Amino acid sequence: MQKVVVIALGCPKNTVEAEYLLGIFQSKGLTISNNLDEADIAVIHTCSFIETARAESEKFIRAVLSIKKKRDLRVYVSGCLPQLLKEKMSSLFPDIDGFAGTGTLRHLPDLIFNKNFDKLLLPPGGLNNSNYRMLSSNMPSAYLKIAEGCDHRCSFCVIPALRGKYESRTIESLVDEAKALAGSGIKELILIAQDTTSYGLDVYGAFVLDKLLAKLSKINGLKWVRLLYAYPSSVTDGLIEVFKEHKNICSYMDIPIQHISRNVLSAMKRPLNTAGIIEKIKSKLPDIVLRTSVMTGFPGETKKDVSELVNFLDLGYFQYVGVFEYSNIKEAVSSKFKKHIKPTVAKERRILLENIQYSIFKSKIDGMKNNIVEFLVESCLKEGNRYHIKGRSSFQSPEIDGNMMLADDKPLAVGEFCKAKIRNVNGYNIRVYI
Ligand code: SF4
Asked: For 288-335, what is each residue's pLDDT tens digit?
């Protein structure tokens, strides 16, 4: 039986697509492996959002092709990179057996099983739904991709060109997938899309993320439902209400704002009233933990723009802030803008903002010292007589917000919920004790 390895690079949306591919491959009789040394087929599911993501994708492709030089291995490259740069990819890596851009991803199995399949790229889109899904980790949480594509046109972003127009899945199909995930032991569901708050407009004629969340929150076995990637201007009053009403919707929202200065937001083609939206959310949901991402070094960003951003972060609305330096992608509108900022300046500004945010985070957690928090156990390792337990609270998303760290003399099982008291911080991790 042939063995296939799928390497998912980039964001959680790619992780979900790779899990659909794994499910489809398994249904077609392939054996799933995570060991490249024994694989007959390798699929590299790529990211192309920013330059560093492209470089990482190309690095993986080179590494896998070096194995193909030594033995029989079929290599396929899928996702954003071939969608955007297929011609370049074909000439750069002639040994690749086939490409599937985001638009042809659902045909990747045909490409693998039927070599005569037409390799042309279809218009951008994505693998938005599948009857098959195989989780790629044994973690107690899973992502639920509620929509594909994006109808916004942020000037720095090529995602709409890669992923196409916004396409919501139906509430029924999402509830079915969520029930199946809960049935397989998943405790935490994490809603993702390029923009989660626009959910439903294309299918139902209105923003209905609140209705979807209300339904998901009633599924047996799901203890937490978490929302990532909320687009600021589509946060409705109904959405705020549903956060108040349902205790198992995590009191946490990831709401990328990118900047706060109206000059920069206007050049980015992002909502200008972002500050007002954040203030409104915090006034209606004072206990909610907010995460955001911001960008430094966008073309034309002045020192005054940076001070505005610093002052806004200083208000303490956000507990977590991902700070990214502007990445000049040739295909993005902003690459043609004047007054590009030197990368060294963008880096200085990133470090400045990161330091400011870390102090804010630390003082928030210091203020919670000895408070009891509940967390979901993700790993438990024995060292000597002690167990080192790692998990996350309802205000920590996987991989980006740090962990709860507990050293105890009793083990805890992965997927178990535990209560402990906050001791102190170590970086973005929070040490707790019982
Ligand atoms: S909202 Fe803006 S940054 Fe996000 S995917 Fe859409 S265009 Fe890109």
From this structure: 999 999 999 999 999 999 999 999 999 999 999 999 999 999 889 999
Would the CB of 188 count as within 6 Å of ligand 1?
no
Given the structure tokens 């609270």, which residue do they identify?
A: 393
Q: Which of 112, 38, 107, 18 is nearest to 74 (CA)?
A: 112
231 Cβ closer than 6 Å to some ligand 1 atom: yes
Q: Answer yes or no: is the C-beta of 157 below 6 A from any ligand 1 atom.
A: yes
Task: Classify domain 141-366 at the CATH topology level.
Answer: pyruvate-formate lyase- activating enzyme (3.80.30)
Give me the pLDDT at residue 118, please: 45
Q: Is 194 in the pocket of ligand 1 (CB under 6 A)?
A: yes
Model pLDDT for residues 144-177, shown as the tens digit of each residue = 999 999 999 999 999 898 888 999 999 999 999 9
> Which fold is adopted by the domain 3-113?
Rossmann fold (3.40.50)
Kindly state if the Cβ of 111 falls inside 6 Å of ligand 1. Answer: no
Residue type (1 letter), 207: F
Give the tens place of pLDDT for each residue, 232-274: 999 999 999 999 999 999 999 999 999 999 999 999 999 999 9
Ligand 1 neighbourhood includes 159 CB (under 6 angstroms): yes
**96-127 burial string, b = 16+ CB within 10 Å, else e?**
bbbbbbbbbbbbbbebbeeeebebebbebbbb
pLDDT value of position 333 = 96
Distance in Å, CA 272 to ligand 1 centroid: 15
Give the residue whose CA is nearest to atom 4 of ligand 1: 194
Atom of ligand 1 nearest to the CA of 231: 1
* pLDDT > 60? residue 120: no
List, in order, residues 6 or more apart from 317 with CB less than 8 Å away. 278, 279, 282, 290
Please tell me the residue having the least CA distance from ligand 1 atom 2.
154
Is the C-beta atom of 329 inside 6 A of ligand 1? no
What's the 158 CA to ligand 1 centre distance in angstroms? 8
Which residues touch 286 (CB under 8 Å, ≥6 apart)? none
CATH 2.40.50.140 fits 372-433, yes or no: yes
* Three-state secondary-structure class, residue 332: coil
Which residue ranges make up each domain of the chain?
3-113, 141-366, 372-433
Count of C-beta atoms within a 10 Å radius of residue 318: 22
